[in-house]
Design brief:
22% of the residues lie in helices and 19% in strands. It has a single domain, classed as Ubiquitin-like (UB roll), CATH 3.10.20.30. The longest helix is centred in the middle third of the chain and has 11 residues. By secondary structure, it is an alpha+beta fold.
Length: 98
C-alpha cells in the first residue's frame, strides 16, 4: 500500500482527510501512483497532471524521502521506502510570487 499526502485543496475535492492509501500493481513509479490516485478518485483527473500529455501541472511538485522528484522521469522507480509504505509520496502545491 502506497501512502500519498495530497494538498488540502485536493483532499477537499476528493472528500478525504489525512493520507490517501492506494494500491499499485507492478513497479512503483510516479506514473503508477498517479494513475492509482486518479482511478480511485476520478474527480482528481486533470488536477495533478494534464489529462492529455500526462505532464505534471505547473505549481505541483512531488516529494519523497526528503527529495524533490518533480523533474524525475515519470517511470523512474520511487524510493523503496515509498514502495514499502514506510514513507509517504507527497503531492505539494508550489507557491510563486514576488
Amino acid at each position: 500500500m502506497i501512502r500519498v499526502i495530497l494538498p488540502a485543496h485536493l483532499r477537499i475535492l476528493a472528500q478525504v482527510t489525512g493520507e490517501v492509501p492506494v494500491e499499485v500493481q507492478g513497479p512503483v513509479t510516479q506514473r503508477s501512483v498517479l494513475e492509482a490516485i486518479e482511478a480511485r478518485y476520478p474527480m482528481l483527473r486533470g488536477t495533478i497532471r494534464d489529462q492529455v500529455t500526462e505532464q505534471r501541472r505547473p505549481y505541483v511538485r512531488f516529494f519523497a524521502c526528503e527529495q524533490d522528484l518533480s523533474h524525475e522521469p515519470p517511470d523512474a522507480p520511487l524510493p523503496d521506502a515509498v514502495a514499502t509504505g514506510a514513507e509517504p509520496f507527497l503531492v505539494v502545491g508550489a507557491i510563486a510570487g514576488g
